[in-house]
Specification:
There is one protein chain. Strands 1, 2, 3, 4, 5, 6 and 7 form a 7-stranded mixed β-sheet that branches. The chain has 308 residues and is an alpha+beta fold. Strand 4 and strand 5 form a beta hairpin. The chain is built from 7 helices and 7 strands.
């Protein structure tokens, strides 16, 4: 590993996420610089080539300002005569076409060199970003070797046989560990459950983290299927926010997730083709708490379940 990548080795989970955020900023900056470099080159090429192409309009005999009829601008006759060579206008056109072709070739070489430079910068930024992601995963797994998140779960019974299930919202680092245990992968941000926009009162709360590959507005517009699809995205980290998906082993449906609701996380569930609801059927609530108990038996977390 190179010296720069070695600096991504970290001691704490918070530091790992800080390095990840820095790598994300640099990756975006590399993309922005590439876009601007291409724009400047194409703008210059367009103008230079356009000027050369426009010059061809003024190469006919007599086009120079001040040239009289039957004369070129130097007083030379334009009349043909015995032993006369090729037309000066034709020669000028050929010279201009040669210059135009050479200029196009020069810009093509410049584009190729620029693309190679940008490719190298992009690959380097992606390498550093991947190393930062790996550092987050390594820290999460290291924490889970020595720490077991503790959950307090309260199950409220409703008259129609449905349940409302709340978990006390954990601290940031515990939230990351919980996401790893319930969703299978850590989140892309340390504050994925606690940034200011998560608890906004007005407007939609987007459940996807914005990345070069993920558009939160599009995910929101796609509804529950698109939101669930975040779990299927490639990568070591989940681009999620304001919720934790729950992957139940060997269970295709229902789908479960924990949504932020003030000081708590609230269980939501849905069957195929339906939207999520926080008024979950008793069987869905039992699946969730049963999954938590199984994680406790395996020594992955501790849980207290209060059923009034």
């Amino acid at each position: 590993m190179s010296g720069e990548l070695k600096r991504l080795e970290v001691d704490t989970l918070a530091e790992a996420y800080e390095r990840l955020a820095e790598a994300e900023v640099e990756r975006a900056a590399v993309a922005a610089r590439a876009k601007e470099a291409r724009r400047r080159l194409e703008q210059r090429a367009h103008y230079v080539l356009g000027s050369l192409e426009a010059a061809e309009r003024f190469l006919d005999e007599g086009d120079e300002v001040g040239a009289g009829e039957g004369q070129t601008a130097g007083g030379r006759s334009t009349e043909t005569g015995e032993g006369r060579g090729a037309s000066p206008a034709l020669a000028r056109r050929e010279a201009l076409q040669t210059q135009l072709a050479e200029t196009r070739a020069a810009f093509a070489r410049e584009r190729a060199a620029l693309e190679e430079e940008l490719r190298t910068a992009r690959l380097r930024a992606e390498e550093i970003f991947a190393a930062a992601q790996a550092a987050v995963v390594e820290r999460v797994e290291a924490y889970l070797e020595h720490a077991r998140p503790h959950l307090s779960v309260e199950v409220a019974h409703l008259a129609d046989g449905r349940r409302v299930v709340h978990l006390r919202r954990p601290e940031r680092e515990t939230s990351v560990l919980l996401c790893r245990l319930l969703a299978g992968r850590p989140p892309g941000r340390l504050d994925f459950l606690s940034d200011e926009s998560v608890d906004r009162v007005e407007g939609p709360v987007y459940l996807a983290q914005r990345t070069p590959e993920v558009d939160p507005e599009a995910i929101h517009a796609g509804g529950a299927d698109a939101e669930d699809g975040l779990l299927a995205l490639d990568g070591p980290l989940l681009p999620i926010r304001a919720h934790i998906p729950v992957r139940l082993p060997k269970v295709a449906w229902p789908h479960l997730r924990l949504r932020t609701r003030g000081a708590v996380l609230e269980l939501e569930s849905r069957e195929e083709g339906e939207p999520y609801t926080h008024l979950v059927p008793e069987a869905h609530a039992e699946l969730f708490t049963g999954f938590l108990v199984s994680l406790q038996v395996r020594g992955r977390l501790t849980v207290e379940i209060d059923v009034p």
